[in-house]
Sequence to fold (552 residues):
Amino acid sequence: MKKNKKISVFGFCVVCFVLFAMSFSTAVWSQHPPKKYRNIAMTAGSIAVPYERTLEWTNTSAFAQEMYKAIADKKITAKMMVTKEAAPRILLARLLLKQNIAEVNQTIQKLMVWGNCGSSWALNPKGDYDFPLTILTTILWKFGDQPDILYPETKNYLQNVLLSEDGGKFCYTAPKTLGLHVETENHMLMTGGSRYLKNRWIAQHGNRDDYYDNVQNGLEEKLLSLLGEMKQNGLYEFNSIPYLGFTITALLNLEAFASEKVRSEARNVLDYINFSYALSSYQLKHYPPMRRRYDKAGIQELSVDYNTAFMKSWLGYLKGVTFDTTMGIGKEHAAFGACMPYRPADRVVQLLFDKVDGYFVRQGHGPKASPEISGAGKHFLISSGGVNRGKKSEIVARPICLFLDDKAKNISEIIHLAGPGTDFMEWNNTGVYENFACAAGPVLIPTGMTAVAKEGNWAVYAASKNVTVMVYSTQKLGLMAVFEDVAPLVVFNEVVLANANPNVLLTSFTFPNGSKLNYDVLAKKDQWVMVAQNGKALDRDFDSWPLIDGEL
Fold:
């Protein structure tokens, strides 16, 4: 009995120590100088992110006003008051419209700090308070000096109660994880950015305490370090649904309200994100590989990701630009983007709709990730689907897609290919090159698209705007070659003649001009499917690819 009692006491002490350590691990960790949250250093590549801005953006947007109204008209329920970020976004929309000002102020004063910041999980069930915190920070900065809109007592309650983060801490690790689990970048930016902006607000309104001085307390240095990593290495949560939306939201806050150093770095990261989007999309159709979450793998729509929503919000301020204003899950994010000062660089806007003479671009995302590969012509874009790197990678691989100048909204409406089988966890859909794509599965043709000619497994399609698509399709091999400004029947005959041996076609394709591509559609998941061009070996190790490389 005594022995068991000693063991019980010892076990109790261990549990108490662990709980104590877990309670404080993030705070202790955050006191150190800036950390590398990914600990990689990618090279820039041959294509630089464009920053030039000469476009004239209007000051008002009817599209933005429509979004504000749609959100402002939503009813705020009791549940919204104590979960994530729905209520603050509705309140922000009403303030932007100067609608029901007194009621909005009353509602803000009824909000509570219902949890803590950082990722929520089993031992931190009340995490995620940084979601509403980020929007409440925006409300303070946009309206805190307008007492007729944000009443003084509301501003004080917002600043002193609801904005719960201040000082120089920086949470590199998720709460209650003993400092062993790195926090996600969206939470680091939301929490750290909101803390930084509260400090800055208080300092700019007369408080000279070093606690609120972002330079003296070290917070600015830590934020700049994180932003610098993201600018150099891109995003870990690339193309994420839903987390990219929250990452961009936090960056927009910093770009609008931070010091000039931080504003500049936040703008650089936003410019990278939007340039990446422009390269791998066409006419706001975007279906790239993404990291997080697996439950989003079934999405079929081509333009529901959050980057598309933000892009539409900004395009509403450009005269002469027409686009599909349909907004699905991203309306709240788009409304936020519309009310902030950031606008994309000129080159980004151009590439959304005009691929000029085409390009071939490879985007690296670092070790154990998936690359993005895009091959564009004047009137089309081939977008790679990427590759899953094991369950823990949280990467959703998608089909290789052919985007055309059309009104397609769903993947069933475009030519696409993937394989083997239907389980994206087994795919390596990196088989994209200039005017070409291949995969270990069939090429799927949308209903209503009729072949101009067929022979065996070959077919040719007059797709749109002088775009001809040559297809070879079996259950274990799909090939697609895209041509512009040529006669479909001529291309058909020349391609079939140049690739007459089906056994050779399993590993190589020859264009009518004699150019030859070699590939391995069953390549390992850490290798590019493309093997060689005209006998010259290609760099297949995409874990070591630079950020953006190719010919543009």
In short: The chain has two domains: 17-37+58-349, 356-551. The two ends are 77 Å apart (CA to CA). Residues 2-30 form the longest helix (29 residues).
